Amino acid sequence: MILTPEAVLQAYASGVFPMSEGREDPEIFWVDPRQRGILPLNGFHISRSLARQMKKGGYTPAINQNFRATLLACADRKDTWINAEIEAVFCALHGLGFAHSFEIWQDGALIGGTYGLALGRAFFGESMFSRATGGSKLALAHLVDHLSRTGFTLFDTQFLTPHLASLGGQEISRAAYRSRLANALQHQADLFSAPLEQDPHCVLQRVTQTS
Predict the structure, then answer these.
(1) What CA–CA distance (Å, rounded) separates 107 from 92?
(2) Kind of pairing, strands 154-158 and 122-130?
(3) Can you give the pTM of this predicted structure?
(4) Helix (H), strand (E) at residue 105
(5) Are the CB atoms for 147 and 122 separated by under 8 Å?
(6) How far, in Å, CA of 66 to CA of 83, rounded?
(7) What is the rounded CA–CA span in Å between residue 90 and residue 51?
């Protein structure tokens, strides 16, 4: 199967997404989970250890500073569903302004991040990674804050992992997800209508107040 940006956008708008069995597997299949993972934008849980890390600072959050490096870091693991075809189409979607990466940098190194697709008022999170303790959690904290500030209403995580559950992730039925997706696609949010917050203390305060 040859993925095109148009086919992928149509699929996400319909509630399905592409995956592969592994990095070297060329086959693509479409997934439509019975139970869908979401991360409520008003329910992100910041643990004491994450709060301490944010208060300590010493890192820099960024959007799209290096999308491909973020995607490849997410795929750099023993078990991954990101094959060359998915990598290529998401890089194309990034070039078209639909796919974005949220990154955490420290001393010039990319230590954590996540990437996903923005459509309407929905953000479809694809994958995340950490190269240092808390890297992915920091990226998610800044992402949740930014999505809330720029008018997004749905943060789709596809599945609910123990890691996401610890951060406030939930599972909802396919029907409930489709309803939320339809509502989110009725209006447009702009990821760049506000700058990404650089002060972790401000993010911590806002996220804590809404969760």
Answers:
(1) 29
(2) parallel
(3) 0.95
(4) strand 99-106
(5) no
(6) 19
(7) 32
What CATH number is attached to the domain comprising 168? 3.40.630.70
Domain that holds residue 113: 33-76+99-210
Domain-located, residue 45: yes
User: pLDDT by residue (tens digit) across 3-15?
Assistant: 999 999 999 999 9
Question: What radius of gyration, in Å, describes the C-alpha atoms of the chain?
Answer: 16
Contacts of 47 (CB under 8 A, 6+ apart): 166
Residue 204 CA: distances (Å) to CA of 10, 44, 54, 125, 146: 35, 11, 7, 21, 12
The number of distinct structural domains making up the chain is 1
pLDDT at residue 123 above 80?
Answer: yes
pLDDT digits (tens, 9 = 90+) for 50-70: 999 999 999 999 999 999 999
